[in-house]
Write a structure and sequence with these properties.
The complex is a heterodimer. By secondary structure, chain A is of the alpha+beta class. Chain A contains 16 helices and 27 strands. Chain A folds into three domains: 53-67 and 221-306 and 536-570, 3-Layer(aba) Sandwich (D-Maltodextrin-Binding Protein, domain 2), CATH 3.40.190.10; 74-209, Dipeptide-binding Protein, Domain 1 (Dipeptide-binding Protein, domain 1, Alpha-Beta Complex), CATH 3.90.76; 314-535, Dipeptide-binding Protein, domain 3 (Roll). Chain A is 27% helix and 21% strand. A seven-stranded mixed sheet of chain A has the order 10-11-12-3-13-23-14. In chain A, strands 20-19-21-15-22 form a five-stranded mixed sheet. The two termini of chain B are 19 Å apart. Classes of the chains: A alpha+beta, B mainly alpha. Chain A: Its main location: other.
Chain lengths: 570, 292
């Protein structure tokens, strides 16, 4: 019995230690969200300095970074993984780059002309760019890359959809490329600025496309040295790199000699290694530790919002019971407590969101931000109007003897923790809606997602750098077909929305674009194909010794070409 | 000799048992506490409402991550649910899992053990090789394989953990059977002309199984841990069902700022397993005659 009481004493001691070691509990929500940027009139703006190198840095050093998950392939054309946003900039370059206002500026393309009918784009390319295997970057390289993106064998869930209007290209001369589009497509240049549409070595695409996944060859500021799946990767500086986007103000090679990336799924460990100086930078700073990071004088915390579509709590299948009725969809949207969910997922770091475009997106119109505001009484009235007035003994609503119920498909991930699903379930129970949670492995979720085989599916974010993200998620042309992976998985078909989004693709005039996107945003809060819940945040944290951190204009993720280490500060 | 290792099949007189219990009360408060705790667990499993009021599924995001205070004695979790309520309601699945999985393991293990111990030599060889193969896998891995085949959920977890514990019981029962079947009283029964089936049912099985039953008591604790480990790894019941392992799995992400999400379920698992094991060991000692 002696060992039992010893155990008991140990347990007591452990509990006491835990109690003593713990900092005061996290404060309750209510304080202002500490994100970067300035909010005014419902929109969000960032300082131009955030995107431009202030002063030249000191070369040398190794940056140790951590991230939560692995993309499992470096073929950025073949995936939609969020890490590509910053990973793509390490290994590759794009044709164009956005400036801090979202306008297009040169990168590998020096300049471009758009034909009056908006269907022909002529790119004049830089002539001094090479890939790390010695291949030249030229018009043929662009053509081969665009073909690779839309090749069915690539199985691209993102890049292919973004260049869907692209018909074919013509090599005018070595450094002039002409792209022909099926119809006018004004976001074409914007999407070409995104990391998922980076330029890969044409020789590798033609001769050994399978090797891109593990040994990618790009023209970017770093070269992959070594990669172990689900563990990490090492990148070394590319000698002779001299073609960073002019918007960044960076000239010449990257400052850092090496980047060591570790994949660390446990948020607690990403935080504690940073705190213990075992890592310098985390690309997925845990929101629950943000307060501690901000309080630590050795660390910096940055929170930035991705453009286009905010984080959705769930997406409805509008063809299935009970979500074929827009009143039920609206009731659900109004019954979900966004501030509560923003608190449990973001610990005061996330901005709650009720409309369909991020506040820093071009043509965002804040007029509809409260249209789907949290209002349980309104939700109850909507369901009463929709005929769900009776209740069963458990308190759930009934119509013609049928219970108001649906199933929410989720998979456990850092981006969408199960607690969000549980919070939704609890919120909906309060209006008499029975939401079952079905937890499935990612492979099954993906399969059922693209087959639209669900009532409601857990959200996530779909980020792009233009308001055309609405077309990608909600236009009827974005519904999957046997040969096309579309992101309108809820199968919304709304003529007015389709018309506005299509018209926006044809327009170049800012006033016309603003008008069409306003109609689209209004139509979305009316049709409620999904429930936005908070802005899609990029949370990064790094040690003070890390200098020159600027952000990508398209993705608002860190841009490592200009990052350097202040060795003396270590 | 056999009598000593196997324990005394005859029951002790009642007065002596009382006396022993009296002495235990005086000398070993640890054991008493363990027994009380198990009693509490039984109440929680059968009638959680007697111990605590409140709905373990009552989530309110705005109440999330509250530190222990006078309203929520053990704090609230990541969905603003009361941790104490959830802990109490999680007792039933945990105990059920421990008991049912042990029962399954014991039942199948006993059948295997008896077959091997009493059957012909080739059957003994076949069964024991199978058991050897199963033993080559760690318990948890075996359970994971079973769950991968049958899918998630409490019922499947019970089967998985149960099957994973079969090999151990099979070996134990076989060893005991081999000892018992040559014992004097078995020989005597056979000589008296009892049929083989009757000898097995009346003499071999009861005497072979008793020490196994005692070890099984200790095994319940181990199986509760295995069940918690499985749900920690994400193979338990899906949310929002309260489960100790699942509560730990979610809570560890918030260890830096909300320790109470992890501390209480961890304490509950530890105390449960320690209590059950303590009682099991006590039974074992008495059976081996090391205690009066």
């Amino acid at each position: 019995m002696n060992h039992l009481s010893r155990l008991a004493r140990l347990a007591l001691l452990g509990a006491a230690l835990l109690l003593a070691a713990c900092k005061p509990p996290a404060s309750v929500q209510g304080a202002a969200v500490q994100a970067d940027g300035a909010q005014a009139d419902g929109t969000l703006r960032y300082a131009a300095n955030d995107y431009r190198e202030a002063a030249p840095g000191r070369p040398g050093g190794t940056l140790r970074m951590s991230t939560a998950s692995d993309t499992t392939t470096f073929d950025v054309h073949s995936i939609s993984h969020g890490n590509v946003q910053w990973l793509g900039r390490i290994l590759f370059d794009c044709l164009v780059y956005q400036d801090e206002r979202g306008n297009i500026s040169p990168w590998l393309a020096k300049s471009w002309d758009i034909s009056p009918d908006g269907k022909t784009y002529t790119f004049h390319l830089r002539d001094d760019v090479t890939f790390s295997d010695g291949e030249k970057f030229n018009a043929r390289a662009v053509q081969i890359n665009l073909e690779h993106m839309r090749d069915p064998a690539t199985k691209s869930p993102l890049a292919a959809a973004y260049i869907a209007p692209y018909v074919d290209g013509r090599v005018v001369d070595e450094y002039t490329f002409e792209a022909h589009l099926r119809e006018p497509y004004s976001p074409f240049l914007d999407v070409l600025a995104q990391s998922w549409l980076s330029m890969i070595s044409p020789r590798q695409i033609l001769e050994a496309p399978k090797t891109i996944a593990q040994q990618p060859i790009g023209s970017g500021p770093f070269v992959l040295e070594q990669y172990t799946r689900d563990q990490g990767a090492t990148f070394v500086k590319r000698q002779g790199y001299n073609w960073a986007p002019s918007v960044t103000g960076h000239v010449g090679e990257a400052y850092l000699d090496r980047l060591e990336l570790s994949i660390v799924p446990e948020p607690m460990i990403r935080f504690s290694t940073l705190e213990a100086r075992q890592s310098d930078f985390t690309l997925d700073a845990p929101a629950q530790n943000a307060q501690a990071i901000r309080a630590n004088p050795d660390l910096q915390m940055r929170s930035r919002v991705r453009k286009a579509n905010p984080f959705r709590s769930l997406t409805f299948n509008v063809e299935r019971f009970p979500f074929e009725d827009v009143r039920v969809r609206r009731a659900v949207a109004r019954a979900i407590d966004r501030e509560g969910i923003a608190w449990i997922a973001g610990f005061g770091e996330f901005l709650p969101k009720g409309d369909f475009l991020a506040a820093n997106t071009g043509y965002y119109d804040p007029a509809f931000k409260d249209a789907l505001g949290y209002d349980v009484d309104a939700a109850n009235r909507l369901l009463d109007e929709a005929g769900w007035a009776q209740r069963d003994p458990q308190g759930y609503r009934l119509k013609d003897g049928k219970r108001l119920a649906a199933q929410l498909l989720i998979y456990e991930s850092g981006v969408f923790p199960g607690s969000i699903a549980v919070a939704i379930q609890a919120d909906l129970k309060k209006i008499g809606f029975a939401m079952d949670i079905d937890l499935l492995p990612l492979a099954q979720i993906t399969e059922r997602r693209y087959a639209s085989n669900f009532d409601a599916i857990a959200g996530g974010y779909w980020h792009t750098n233009t308001p055309d993200g609405l077309f990608i998620l909600y236009h009827s042309q974005s519904i999957s077909t046997p040969t096309f992976i579309g992101q309108n998985v809820g199968r919304l078909r709304d003529a007015a929305l389709d018309q506005a989004l299509s018209a926006a693709r044809q327009a170049h005039d800012p006033a016309e674009l603003a008008r069409q996107y306003r109609i689209a945003q209004q139509r979305l809060v009316e049709t409620v194909p999904a429930v936005p819940v908070f802005e899609s945040h990029v949370l990064v944290a790094y040690r003070n010794a890390v200098k020159g951190v600027i952000f990508d204009t398209s993705h608002n993720t860190p841009f490592f070409t200009s990052v350097w280490l202040d060795q003396e500060a270590q | 000799m056999t009598e000593l290792t196997l324990g005394n099949p005859s029951l002790k007189p009642g007065s002596e048992t009382l006396f022993v219990a009296h002495r235990a009360w005086q000398l070993r408060p640890g054991l008493t506490l363990a027994a009380l705790f198990v009693l509490l667990l039984l109440v929680a499993a059968l009638q959680p409402g007697w111990l605590i009021s409140g709905d373990p599924l009552d989530a309110n995001a705005r109440q999330a991550f509250r530190a222990p205070d006078s309203v929520h004695w053990l704090g609230t979790d990541e969905n603003g649910r009361d941790i104490l309520v959830r802990l109490v309601h999680a007792v039933r699945p945990s105990l059920l899992l421990g008991l049912a999985a042990t029962a399954i393991g014991l039942l199948i293990g006993t059948v295997f053990g008896l077959l091997a111990g009493l059957g012909p030599r080739w059957l003994d060889g076949a069964v024991m090789r199978l058991v050897d193969v199963l033993l080559a896998f760690p318990d948890l891995l075996l359970a994971l394989v079973v769950i991968t085949f049958f899918g998630q959920g409490l019922f499947n977890t019970i089967i998985a953990v149960g099957i994973a514990s079969v090999p151990r019981y099979a070996r134990l029962v076989r060893a005991q059977t081999l000892v018992v079947r040559n014992a004097g009283y078995v020989e005597a029964a056979t000589t008296l002309g009892l049929r083989r089936r009757a000898v097995i049912a009346r003499h071999v099985l009861p005497n072979a199984i008793k020490p196994v039953l005692i070890l099984a008591t200790i095994g319940i604790g181990g199986n509760i841990i295995a069940g918690a480990a499985l749900s920690f790894l994400g193979f338990g019941a899906p949310p929002p069902v309260p489960e100790w392992g699942g509560m730990l799995a979610i809570g560890r992400n918030y260890l830096g700022n909300a320790w109470w999400l992890v501390a209480w379920p961890a304490l509950a698992i530890t105390l449960t397993v320690v209590s059950i094991t303590a009682i099991g060991r006590e039974l074992l000692r008495r059976n081996e005659g090391k205690r009066p």
